[in-house]
Design brief:
The protein is an alpha/beta fold. Helices cover 46% and strands 17% of the residues. Strand 1, helix 1 and strand 2 form a beta-alpha-beta unit.
Length: 206
């Protein structure tokens, strides 16, 4: 297995099946910035109103895969087998909910804090274990990690514009990624910590 983080911004994923599994797959794609075309025979639940989700209540056809970057087969076993075959014929990566080994990729359990993302996978062998690990990590990696990553993202162009020595850049990032900044964010206002980060950058410029 090769772990990857895919940039799904404005890319289309097709989900076949609108049950609990299909809805989870669709939600994962949307949370990653992608668009979803979901095909099933059930009407769209009123609670699923995200504009990135194109819910189509109709029978599956291979034409539904047109324009897809990823495909999720989350329906009955027989239907999933057809979807996998159709996706493979088009050179598309497909995830098969009923038979994970028949697909090309797995969706890991995730802990998402803004742009901070942890992924836990078992290669499809034990999804329940991955979920249990995720629940344990959620308590340890709180929302502050998302704030920290957001601040570091804000600092990146400033460092690129003002620090030119590669060794200094390396050491500065090492400093800004130390755990003390996380503890400060848990104890102080974001604005205060941001000012301290900017002061740290200035110190490396001198």
């Amino acid at each position: 297995m090769l772990p990857l983080l895919l940039n799904l911004t404005d890319r289309l994923a097709v989900v076949i099946g609108g049950g609990a599994v299909g809805q989870r797959k669709a939600a994962a794609v949307v949370s990653g910035g992608g668009r979803v075309r979901l095909i099933c025979l059930e009407p769209r639940p009123a609670t699923l109103s995200d504009p990135l989700l194109d819910w189509r209540t109709e029978s599956y056809s291979p034409d539904h895969l047109q324009g897809a970057s990823l495909v999720f087969a989350a329906g009955p076993v027989e239907l999933n087998e057809r979807v996998v075959a159709d996706a493979r014929a088009r050179g598309l990566w497909v995830n098969a909910a009923s038979e994970p080994a028949a697909g090309d990729f797995f969706l890991p359990a995730t802990v998402r804090r803004g742009d901070f993302l942890l992924a836990i996978g078992t290669g499809g062998a034990a999804p329940r274990l991955a979920q249990n690990v995720r629940q344990r990590l959620e308590a340890e990696y709180d929302e502050t990690f998302g704030v920290w990553v957001s601040l570091l993202s804000e600092m990146r162009p400033l460092i690129k514009e003002r620090v030119f020595d590669s060794e200094k850049i390396h050491d500065l990032w090492t400093t800004l990624c130390q755990w003390q900044w996380l503890e400060r964010l848990r104890a102080e206002d974001r604005i205060v910590v941001r000012a301290a980060m900017l002061a740290e950058i200035e110190r490396w410029i001198e």
